Recover the amino acids of this structure.
């Protein structure tokens, strides 16, 4: 992993479908780290799988 320095504003996070990480784990991270409800986590995980990834954010630098 690389250190990232953002001098020009907020950051966006790309979550992509790597084909090996279980969706249950992705849903768990969405709930625990991003504070999504169970329903939201299921929806977002499905979007990640369908679109092979999504962009999350913006987050403060």
């Amino acid at each position: 992993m690389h250190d990232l320095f953002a001098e020009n504003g907020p950051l966006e996070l790309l979550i992509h479908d790597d084909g090996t990480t279980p969706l249950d784990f992705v849903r768990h991270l969405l709930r625990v780290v991003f504070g999504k409800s169970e329903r939201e986590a299921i929806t977002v995980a499905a979007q990640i799988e369908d679109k092979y990834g999504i962009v999350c954010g913006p987050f403060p630098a």
Remarks:
- The helical segments are 23-32, 38-51.
- Residues 10 and 60 are 5 Å apart (CA to CA).
